[in-house]
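hiii so my PI (J.) wants the whole complex modelled not just the main chain, which honestly fair. so below is everything: two entries, each one labled with what it is. i double checked the lines twice but i was tired so who knows lol
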Amino acid sequence: MTDTRNPLETVVAAAASRRRFLTAGLAIPAAAVLGRALPGSLLQAGSAAAQDEKTLVVALPQATVQLDPSIAGSNGYGDIIPVTDNVTEGLTRFKLGSTEIEPALAESWEVSEDGLTYVFKIRPGVTFHDGTPLDAKAVETSFLRQFDETHPLHDEGMVYAGVIFQDVEKIEATGDLELTITLSKPTILLPGNLAVFAAGIVSPTALEAAGKEFGQAPVGTGPFKVDSFTKDVQLDLVANDDYWGGRPALDRVIFRTIPEDTVRLSELQTGSIDVANQIDFKDAETITGDANLQLVTGPFLNVQFLAFNQSQAPFDKPEVRQAIEHAINKQNIADAVFYGHYTLGAGPIAPPLPGYDAALAETYAYDPEGAKKILADAGIEGVEFELLSRPNSVWPLVAQLIQADLAAVGIAATIRSLEDAEFFKELGSGTTQAFINDWTWDNGDPDNIITPIFASDRALTRLGYDSATVKDLASKAQVEKDQAARAALYLDAEKQILADSAAVFLGYPERGIGATKAVQNLQVSPVGSLVLREVDLG
Amino acid sequence: MGAYVLRRLLIAIPTLLGVSFIVFVMLHTAGGDAAEVTLGSRADAESLAKLRHELGLDQPLPVQYFRFLGNALRGDLGVSYRSNTPVSEEVFNRLPATIELAVAAMLIAIVIGVALGVLAAIRRNSWVDLTTTVGALLGVSIPTFWLGLLLIVVFGLWLRWLPISGRVNPRLGADPSTPFLLASSVLHGDWRIARDAFAHLVLPAITLAAWPAAIIARMTQASLVEALSNDYIRTARAKGLAEPAIVRGQAARNAMLPVLTVIGLEFGALLGGAVVTEKVFAWPGLGQLTVNAIASRDYQLVMGVVLVLAAMFVILNTLTDLLYAWLDPRIRFR
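here's the output for the full assembly
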């Protein structure tokens, strides 16, 4: 058979039939997808008046996948903390820029003589964003779905229940606007725990209606309500005109996810965004040197540490741990990694919490010669170990600085870097020799590190550490009402932890936010949220 | 022809099965699971066990795999651990942004790659040829990450010609969940958003185009040089045909066939390989979704994304083969 057409005709015919094929094949799905956007407008509902609105654009490094405050997101929790306090609120909250507790959705509370019963008076006249009135029953539902594992709205992802409802026995609406919480032990931690973001109270009506999808459009009582949410990409909030604390100054807040530090900074420099959360401190000078920008910094309740597993050699020998305590130059980390925005480590408790004492740093002063001597006196030579770290954030740099310091005193540390999932699996297995990690406070209480890290089962698994003294001190401090006496108990616990050289407390990093000069009243929250209720644009 | 297409599509089934199996095994040997990531520092044995049970992670691996497969066959890709939303919804919400970026990058790559390749071929050993060779080498060797940041700093920050990241300026009020934002805004006649969306597309598309443009340029050059050395070209020259007519009318059509294959393959790679570009430019496509899903060990989501990408790759390859045969009458389907 011969083809009588010339090559050009063949190509043209082929192209034509290819076009027909492509048109038929692609037009249908394309129309289906485009069609979704076509009928209405491309604009978001309610954005018509966008021109005169006071809109604040905030860039976050984390992706936000869901907004139910009680459910931990993909990166553990870091992804919703910055945004959630603007939408949902707890019975209590932290005063702006501090860890002091103040009333929020509870107007006041009373504690029984024996310290076991807390009666909260719910603030009257508050409504959720969907119009549902706030009452004790609504708070009860919000709490029970986390606290009671048989509750129909319970989800296993509610991992903060253990923190918020520590030692809670019963939660009950005992009046229209009265909620009673009964404890099994008279701890004084409850009001602080109820200020944790995960204790945010949500509309029971919306919860029932949305079911598992609630996290895509949460309904709270906060100063802003959710206007639209595109997972991982953008969250638009609008002012809640009926906010009990007075309407916020901003009309609209847009949270965008921009993972790269450099890109976030560039967007800020060009003015495309107003606020860049979590600035890398290497960029601090660029921000302070720019006439249009400001650097907002402040203490952040976070401690970085190098922890030893005492059940693993070589850390079963106290001399090795002590030598390492003396060998690490914390000032180096402060300068090279945080450009000075770092308080050198003393004990596990971060400033300005009760129990923090800068003098604890003197327990193990930087003294490489002393470190060598401790090893020599104990007749220990050729110490080698594997230091578990992570490949993201500041960890690679911190690990390398530690490695160099240890090499200088004759200790060979091999860095093994694992991403989050594998890192935490290793820690949980109890086979890790030593690791660097940090701890961010959920609430503003010293107990939040002493108990979970040094006086729990986790301490035994991860650190091979089981101190009856620390457990006893922590337990007493939980029920001590006198603040000075509590601080003294925690200080004793810290001294014990240091005497046992359970970990090297490297330091407490600050948190930096970059913003344009027009942004007013922005403060760093010690627990990592970005509270915008008083922020304005000048 | 029909039988050929059917056979190609049938071959896709074991391919997809193989891909899903390999990805499943790799995910589970990577260590750490969704429960560990979710609980992080706060994990203890009891809460881990409870969360694993809830997520079905306490089932034996073969059970997990076959359950995934069974559901996938019924079109159910499962529910993402991260967000509690269906995986198919997550994937198809993000796919349009990736397609938009990949198409723009491919157009840039084809225009630049073919133009440079042809110039280099007809001006062999000239400065054009040398420049193209060096440019192609740079295109394949510059890390995407670095190129992206360079473009951002130069065109976004210093010159301020173009926006830096995202798909559209959020202050314009465009709905960021619009699939095919640029195309939709053009169809709506909303030129304010269309202009902005187009400007946002430029830098990431150039970044993403660097690699395929380089490959296409080299392939075009090599292929055209070979075509120009054929006997029929000599005959055409002997007949006194002008050189441009020879290149356009005789050599180019034949030389384009392998280029077409490369374009098809590269386009498939662009859809799945925009991971770095998407992260740098905060472009909300499949690449970012995949990275986040892997980091959080969201097995369901990773499997879903990979299956969809693999299916698209297979379909694109099949389409390329069909086009190839259509254009070259010497190739017949068997």
